[in-house]
Amino acid sequence: MNSIIWGIYNLSEKERFDIVCFGECVIDHISQISQKGPQEFSMRISNYKVLFGGRGLNFAATAKIFTPNVLLISAVGVDYASSGLKEYLKTKDICDSRFYRTQKYDLPQAFIYNHGSNSSIYFYPGLWAKAEAEVKTYLNRCIDSVRAKVIYCTSGSPDLNLHLLKNFTSKFRVFAPGHELYIYNRDQIINLLINTNALFLNQTEYLLLEDKLDMKINKILSNYDLDLVVITLGHRGSRLISKEQLVGIPACTTDYVVDQTGAGDGFAAAFLATYLAGGNLKYSTQIASVTSSFLIEASGGHANLPSYELIKKRYKENL
């Protein structure tokens, strides 16, 4: 067992999981822009798809490759069934028993515009903004009845993330703020770090975090007693910082890059599941890099989920 996460840990008689993820299920509108016009002119879209995604769903779907004992805690709206999401989750073997359901508000939607290696994202939070107080009350039921070895919080709500990280019974607490990091104020970030064991960030997010706290990432790790900070750097690979070591892992390259949406979610899922199973930091990061290389070969955050056997094969061939 990994010393950072484990030791002797009794999860009691309540519902027990390896990994619990808290985050959104989102309707993604993904556009590939072939020609970008001047400001105030239209942009030509060469490919457009509507898919199911969101950081919570992307993470859970990828984690299922490695362990079946994954629970997604989320919230869904009045269009849960009519949108097709309810049936879609069944195809991914994702249980909705811990979803808060409202009949008043709709699902969140993301509008993603990819142009080369650049992306612009517009996010409509739907029920997550309009029913946040109701979702928070529902989370108390989950806190009372669910236990996990790892809790991974990646919703767009600073308050809900903090509530769960602070009160949920778990040995290892992970925070991944994602694109919404810009809405967090300094006090919110500090409170979250105090209740977190590990951070997952991309390059833009870690630079923004350093700016908001006026502190370099190594100092953030030591000041807030974090065990791990994992930073994804796109085609330049990833960097893992722990109290004992700094690990730099090159990207597992692919010649067929279609869409990088959700690659960071899948990276985190693969890393945590592999580390949980006994992999060391370097190996877990390598498996995460390989997993992400499959995800970027198709539009959507988990449309090109590989089997565990394909991940191992590509790992042997590339790393």
Gyration radius from CA atoms, angstroms: 19 Å
Individual helix count: 11
What name goes with the CATH superfamily? Ribokinase
CATH topology: UDP-N-acetylmuramoyl-L-alanine:D-glutamate ligase
Give the N-terminus to C-terminus distance in angstroms. 24 Å
The residue fraction in helices comes out at 25-40%
Order of helices and strands: EEEHEHEEEHHEHEHEHHEEEHHH
Give the percentage of residues in beta strands.
Answer: 25-35%
CATH class: Alpha Beta
Give the number of DSSP strands.
Answer: 13
> Tell me, what's the shape?
globular
* Number of structural domains: 1
CATH architecture: 3-Layer(aba) Sandwich
Tell me, rounded to a whole number, the average pLDDT.
Answer: 92
Structural class: alpha/beta
Unreliable parts: 3-12
Spatially, the strands of the biggest sheet line up as 5-4-1-8-9-10-11-12-13
Major pleated sheet = 9 strands, mixed
Please give a handful of descriptors for the protein shown:
9-stranded mixed beta sheet; alpha/beta; 319 residues; 4-stranded mixed beta sheet; UDP-N-acetylmuramoyl-L-alanine:D-glutamate ligase
Descriptive account of the structure:
With 319 residues, the protein is α/β, with parallel strands linked by helices. It has a single domain, classed as UDP-N-acetylmuramoyl-L-alanine:D-glutamate ligase (3-Layer(aba) Sandwich). 35% of the residues lie in helices and 27% in strands. The protein contains 11 helices and 13 strands. It has helices spanning 55-63, 85-91, 127-130, 132-145, 158-167, 186-194, 203-213, 217-223, 263-276, 281-295, 308-318; strands at 15-22, 26-35, 44-53, 70-76, 99-101, 109-115, 118-124, 146-153, 170-175, 198-202, 228-232, 238-242, 246-249. The strands form 2 sheets. Strands 5-4-1-8-9-10-11-12-13 form a 9-stranded mixed sheet, sandwiched between helices. The protein has a 4-stranded mixed sheet with strand order 3-2-6-7. The protein is globular, with a radius of gyration of 19 Å. Residues 3-12 have low confidence and may be disordered.
